Amino acid sequence: MQQALEDCAPCVPELFETDNCYRHLVECRIAPDIQALESEWHHQTKQVLDEATLEMPEIGHAMSGGRQGLHSEELGYLLAEMQFLQRAYPGLSW
Q1: Phi-psi sector, 61: left (phi>0), alpha (psi -120 to 50), beta
Q2: pLDDT for residue 53
Q3: Do 52 and 1 meet the contact criterion of CB atoms below 8 Å apart?
Q4: What is the dihedral of CA 38, 40, 45, 46, to 10 degrees?
């Protein structure tokens, strides 16, 4: 479980990243201000991890740019896996 936290830690800052479009949604009261939620998220997450006897990993190099379409190489593999059935069996219905 601790290793999973270590693996996901670089993605945490991107949870609270915004762009112009998102900020407009916040101004229009359509979306929550995720930046305002960040400190509470860290506080509550730390409480849960403490209770589970896990440690919040240090966030070193943080991922960034997902909202601008910048993704890691792993996304390509994930998309290929998710699209396999649709491409292998066009028109398939469940």
Answers
A1: beta
A2: 97
A3: yes
A4: 110
Helix or strand (DSSP H, E) at 44: helix 34-51
Length of the chain: 94
CA nearest to 60, candidates 4, 16, 25, 13: 13
Angstrom distances, CA of residue 23 to CA of 28, 49, 75:
9, 30, 25
Q: What predicted TM-score, i.e. pTM, was given to this entire model?
A: 0.65
Give 10-residue mean pLDDT values along the chain (94 residues): 91 89 96 94 96 91 72 84 86 79
Question: Residue 56 and residue 45: Cα distance in Å, rounded?
Answer: 8
Cβ(45)–Cβ(56) below 8 Å: yes
- Asked if 7 and 54 count as a contact pair (C-beta separation under 8 A), the reply is no
Instruction: Give the separation between CA 16 and CA 13, rounded to whole angstroms.
Output: 6
